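Predict structure. Input: Beta-lactamase-related domain-containing protein, 310 residues.
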Amino acid sequence: MGGELKVTCDPADVGLDAGRLRRIDSHFAPYVDDGRLPGWLTLVSRRGEIAHLSAYGARDLASGAPVETDTLFRIYSMSKPITSVAAMMLYEEGAFELTDPISRFLPAFADMRVYEKGTAEAPITRPAAEPIRVWHLLSHTSGLVYGFQHVSVVDELYRAAGFDRSTPRDLDLAGAVDRLAELPLLFEPGSQWNYSVATDVLGRLVEVVSGQPLDRFFAERIFGPLGMTDTAFHVGADDADRMASLYFAGADGRAKLLDMGDTAFRPPRTLSGGGGLISSAGDYHRFCQMLLRGGELDGVRLLARARSRT
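Output follows.
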């Protein structure tokens, strides 16, 4: 990111109390000290100013490399707002209506079916009465699911098709989305809410409508204009040492390394708009500031300011 990430104001100037902000650090430090977390970074911003910034612990326990203000993290579902902004940029350009069936752009979704009953080995489905529309993807009301949820027959079918915590390794985004369209929906589109792979499908819609791969659209239309030089689907060799290792909570509650191999350091086959990006606190702060300022930051406007309804 351009420039050093640092506190830019006295907290009192933006209505915050410095002593109370320090309680964030004193609360989370024990999580590192007792092994529950390897490390953390916190940033508190108000009125466009950074009022509190702190880092503690290690970005990699094996080497002891500390968390620093420019550490790179896998941001997983924090990728979703970026993909949604990309879609809304295209909507504002008149590329589609939010009520358009997504099958207009992704034909594999033309004849969706909804799960009714039965087992994963013998599911009983019926034709969907309502098509998946663009707004369903944006609002997680499409009937799609995540395979890792373990709450329904439908997510069991996802896992059987290779969609657990990732996508089948042999598929790019287009192939993955087409395969998702072969699986039944959990409910009629628009009738319920369920967190899902919908934003990955939305990312593919962005590709089709824009005529660009998702990584290129992000780089040229969002990251470049906003100066988000740390955000991408993989980390280049020059920045590899800034990457935080990934940990999970073991049975004893302590942080355990999740071996991701070299996945962060090479372009992924599937460009996951729902959970595939890597970023820094400084970059994501800039993205959030753009949203808070009504779609504009430092003279760069990505989205129109919301109009009040009368």
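The chain has two domains: 11-79+228-301, 85-210.
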